[in-house]
Amino acid sequence: MNTRTIALIPLFFLFLTTSVMAGSYNYVDQDTFKNWLESSSPMNIVDIQVKEEFPKHHFKNAIETNAYPVKTDKERARIDKAVTAYKENNHKVVVVCPRGGGGAKRCYDYMKAQGVPEKDLVILKGGVEKWPHKEMLLSSAH
After folding, report:
1. pLDDT tens-digit map of 19-70
2. Pairing of strands 63-64, 43-47
3. Given strand 27-28, what is the order of strands in its sheet?
4. How many CB atoms lie within 10 A of CB 43?
5. So what's the architecture of 25-136 in CATH?
6. Which end of the chain, N or C, is less surrounded by CB atoms within 10 Å?
7. DSSP-assigned letter for residue 134
8. Which stretches of 23-131 are DSSP H helices?
């Protein structure tokens, strides 16, 4: 092997690792989730928005956890009620966060570690911020 080939090997493995990590979460697009809501599909909607944001815009029957950004043990513990709900009803879990990014992934990881199978876990793409059907969101803010 020449020097150039040897230099490219670590880059190849970095690319391979990044690709695997990037694809390790299940997502639901807005249209599919809208259909689930409209058809009253049984699901656990786990909303991790902060306490100040949840009342402004959330989905009907969402489990309010206020766990965002899901970085501390205290924040992760707030998700336990959603884990309990899943264990009681075995309905799919839709994680909803502000933008569908890191906080949602950390919630997903935590729920998976607590025994929720990945086949039942999804993250709403774009979170509440990118939700195109604002009329479907509830507001209890005054």
Report:
1. 334 459 999 999 999 999 999 999 999 999 999 999 999 999 999 999 999 9
2. parallel
3. 27-28, 121-124, 92-96, 43-47, 63-64
4. 20
5. 3-Layer(aba) Sandwich (3.40)
6. C
7. G
8. 30-38, 73-77, 80-89, 102-113
Residue pair 117/89 in contact by the 8 Å Cβ criterion: no
The contacts of residue 117 (CB under 8 Å, 6+ apart) are none
Quote the CA–CA distance of 110 and 14 in Å, as a whole number. Answer: 25
Secondary-structure percent of the chain, ordered helix, strand, coil, rounded to 5: 45, 15, 40
For residues 53 and 90, what is the distance between their CA atoms, to the nearest angstrom?
28
CA–CA distance, 65 with 101 (Å, rounded to integer)? 17
| Per-residue pLDDT band at 140 (split at 50, 70, 90) | confident
pTM exceeds 0.85 for this model = no
**In Å, how far from its chain's centre is CA 57?**
16
Dist CA 112 CA 27 (whole Å): 14
128, 137 contact by CB (below 8 A): yes
Q: Which of the pair, 88 or 9, is modelled with greater confidence?
A: 88
Instruction: Quote the tokens at residue 51.
Output: 């306490």
